[in-house]
Amino acid sequence: MPGFFSSLFQWIAGLFFSSTAEIAIVGLQASGKTSFVNVITSGQFSEDVVPTVAFNFRKIRKGRVTFKLWDLAGQPKFRSMWERYCHGVDAVVFVVDSSERDKFNTARFELHQFITNPTLLGIPLLVLGNKNDIDEHASVKELIRALQLDKISDRPVSCYSCSMKSQHNLDIILQWLSSKSH
């Protein structure tokens, strides 16, 4: 019977002490945005991910935080739509394939163009250098330099190296996202 009361108490506490974090996930195509959402929501990684067209929306509860995740397509024709889905979000996650250095200039351009939108002023930014399970991936220091993250001063910025395949640093990323909930 004590287990029942404990469960009941946790359920009631969750009703009154839960929070929500609305997160927009952007980045170039094939950087791992959808894999990120899939790993967070189901715990499963798949090599066979269909490219997102326009956007996907998922909602998941982790502990006392309900995450509303906007997975936005990264193909060039959809990038102009990113800002439209970011009104009122609690944080933006920008995913970069850290093994594809030849795309860093494009990623930097798209990121800086995107965050200059007045509606995004002050929204915290988390940059994920995904695919760190691949040899020769860029380090966090290299990503900060290549994407000029040190030049962004109008919002909190964090950068982590991660792998959705191995789920490396997923716990730290979820802590960061949870800290943006209200």
Q: Note the run of SSEs as H and E.
A: HEHEEEHEHEH
- CATH H level, superfamily name: P-loop containing nucleotide triphosphate hydrolases
Sketch the major β-sheet. Answer: 6 strands, mixed
CATH A-level architecture:
3-Layer(aba) Sandwich
Under CATH, the topology can be stated as Rossmann fold
What are the low-pLDDT stretches, counting only 5+ consecutive residues below 50? none
The total of beta strands comes to 6
Alpha-carbon distance between the two ends: 34 Å
The shape, in one word, is globular
Give an account of the 3D structure.
The chain has 182 residues and is an alpha/beta fold. The chain has a single domain (20-179), classed as Rossmann fold (3-Layer(aba) Sandwich). It is 30% helix and 23% strand. It is built from five helices and six strands, in the order H-E-H-E-E-E-H-E-H-E-H. It has helices at 2-17, 33-42, 104-115, 140-146, 170-178; strands spanning 19-26, 55-62, 65-72, 91-97, 125-130, 157-161. The chain has a six-stranded mixed β-sheet, sandwiched between helices. Strand 2 (55-62) and strand 3 (65-72) form a beta hairpin. The longest helix has 16 residues, at 2-17. It is globular, with a radius of gyration of 17 Å. The protein starts with a helix and ends with a helix.
